[in-house]
Specification:
Elements lengths: L15 H5 L8 E2 L2 E2 L1 E2 L10 H14 L9 H21 L7 E4 L2 H16 L5 E5 L8 H10 L2 E5 L9 H7 L4 E7 L11 H10 L3 E5 L11 H4 L3 E5 L10 E5 L1 H6 L10 E4 L4 E3 L13 H16 L2 H20 L4 E3 L9 E6 L4 H9 L3 E2 L1 E3 L4 H6 L5 E5 L6 H18 L1
Parallel strand pairs: 3-15, 5-6, 5-7, 7-8, 8-9
Antiparallel strand pairs: 1-2, 4-10, 9-10, 11-12, 13-14, 14-17, 16-17
Helix pairs in contact: 2-10, 3-10, 4-5, 11-14, 12-14
Amino acid sequence: MSSLAEARPAASKFAVERVRADFPILETRINGRPLVYLDNAATTHKPRAVLDALEHFYTHDNANIHRGVHTLSQRATAAFEAAREKVAGFLNAADSCEIIFTRGTTEAINLVAQSYARSQLVAGDEILIGEAEHHANIVPWQILREQIGIVLKVVPVNDAGELEPEAIAARVTARTRLLAFGHVSNALGSINPVKEIVAEARKVGAKVLLDGAQAVAHGRVDVQALDCDFYAFSGHKLFGPTGIGVLYGKRALLEAMPPYQGGGDMIKTVTFEATEYADLPHKFEAGTPHISGGIGLGAAIDYFLSLDLAGALAHEQDLLAYATARASEMPGLRIIGTAREKEAVLSFLIDGLHPQDIGVLLDSQGVAIRTGHHCAMPVMQRFGVPGTARASFAFYNTRQEVDVFFAALEKARRMLA
């Protein structure tokens, strides 16, 4: 689907209890209480299939890749490259060579900034970003501005936390070279109008980078249908390991870009006079990669696609609707981010209560949420708040956990009041 909000079922009979059994950590007790984990926008938990894949690699196949002729190296290489194929299929990339393994979304965006943008843009060229971006999609462009003098323009969000297509169109000019936006806001849950973003870029021949860190766990992403030029995400947001991520880029762009880092495995030949770089995708993968992470990400994609995906996503939307309704009943609670189309993220404040105090008291009751600015300080400034408390849901959460969350929240509210 080109938009995560399209064609979602209105109701779900998702087998959540059966799925929960696939995640060993959900059996954990915190301060003597069953864990209620509502920090999925920060990182998701790992199903047993991913844990087993990691153990199998280190137990049976552990070796460096691409360079060895011995059996373990061949097996490790095959498993790692099979994971690349799975990522390509998951994103509907035209070719697996368009899939670059990185450490995560942050490194993927930095790669685009320092390889594509630094080599193609000149002083005065413009890059557009949104007001609700994660710092990973702000700071790399500020660094680039200091390096070559590009102009960084910010598209504001409305009071609901939405990017309005008209606001984007109003800031695109003949000097616009790149539009870099989150697919989904991590701080607010808003689903951005990616079709309109791409359409505006095409009017002036600009390229588009989408930060998909918060999108990939909430639906199939089709990069060809989106027609974006770059797409980035992190494995740990998709029930996979930390330290592994992906940059998708259109082949023609990647082939024209210079390497981001130099070292082993990204070369064909090296002399003291010159170096000939490897073909895609290895040109951008210097050194020994996170082999087990790539294999674990492949296992996570296999697991994710084995689910009743429509049911899982409808279940998440049901949790969001239920939590939003419960929030509307609590005195003094204000939701920050009320977009019409949003993922299962509930950012909120309670009058007179500091978000960090809320988080600590909820943790004492076994409920894990995130508090603070969520690596999105500019959007907090836009709403005039230092930060929020944020509950974010995944398909393994339940309505019963939402009830526990609000009971704990009410207890915290009474204690702090």
